[in-house]
Amino acid sequence: MVEERITDGHRIAQLLASEVDGREDGELEYFSVTNADRDVQPTADGARAYDVVRRKKRIARAFVHEERAHLEFEVRQDVATEAASDVDLRVRPKASTPPRTLVFVESGAEVKRATDVLQAVSRALENTDA
């Protein structure tokens, strides 16, 4: 069997969008992909590809680079940081106002782990909404 590692940022972002829009298990039933830029071209700093929305509220934006993608979390950055670390995804804060947290998805194999981070953030939001 030939194993091919997907490291094209555009393709990784597409796979992530498919997981977010296509899966309806767990917390993913509350998510959708919106405002997609179908003509996005990868850049060194990352070009915005689409928004990740939970129950009509944007919680993250997806960006594409040449060899990876990243999610920029706008809410519950603490939970995103912990969940990403727990599933061995690279994570770092973004010095901006308001602050953001970046979670890097560096291969197609990491897409499911990125959805685990989205679900952890969703559960935290659900707990604060209650």
From TrEMBL:
<dbReference type="InterPro" id="IPR058306">
    <property type="entry name" value="DUF7993"/>
</dbReference>
<dbReference type="Pfam" id="PF25956">
    <property type="entry name" value="DUF7993"/>
</dbReference>
<feature type="domain" description="DUF7993">
    <location>
        <begin position="1"/>
        <end position="127"/>
    </location>
</feature>
<protein>
    <recommendedName>
        <fullName>DUF7993 domain-containing protein</fullName>
    </recommendedName>
</protein>
